[in-house]
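Pilot study result, target chain (254 residues):
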Amino acid sequence: MVDVNFWARRFPPTRKLYEEDSYLREADSTVIGYVEEKSRRYYTVFSETIFHPRAGGQGSDTGLAEWEGGSFKVEKALNVGGVVVHRGRLLEGCMPEAGAAVRLVLDWGNRYRTMRLHTAGHILDHAVRVVYGRVVETLDAYHSPPIPYVVYSARAPTASELKEIERVANEVVSMDLPVKVVYVERGGLERVVIYAPNLSRLGEAESYRVVVIEGLNAIPCTGTHVKRTGEVGRIVIREVADFNGKFKLVYDVA
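Predicted structure:
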């Protein structure tokens, strides 16, 4: 069995192209190294990647790495101390050696849905704040198929409050507000974040990536997002579960 955490330590941090441009569907990269897990299954590291790992409240991207004479199915991406490790299987040919050029191709349908869901999650944070009259801390979140959700530290909403949360959220969608990303040094974080419900879960870092929905909130986040709230589509609340002073909001986009 491969100790991925130990193996990945030998590599420099991966350039994360998905943080620079969430809409990037394909990119050229270079093989840094690989190790065989079992027959035709490998862990691979590239110099840069478009594949977002399961982290920061969203699931892993999937797709392909292609090169002359071969291809590799990326089934899961893992973030190991800043190194993105791609786990998958060899479809054809032989694994390329370190230094070889590859073409990365994203499963765009899955990524774009996740982008819509993740921005929808930030919009729901705003809607919950409006209805409850305060920033409600988030304890957990997952903004990818098949079951996106957010867990809030508060009593569960009443039926009328739930209806209002959904109404406020979809009002934001209809406003088609711009969504942008800014980077801020650790010392300046408090001057940039606005109505961020996840600060208690934020780890230590030299700098932070903050997703800003104009006029709504500015939340530290490493995930992928759409450029405007209008791209999200209709936000639908599917279920609410009450857990003794906290509640889980299961939602989707249509």
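One observation from the pilot: Residues 108-132 form the longest helix (25 residues). A full batch analysis is planned for the follow-on phase.
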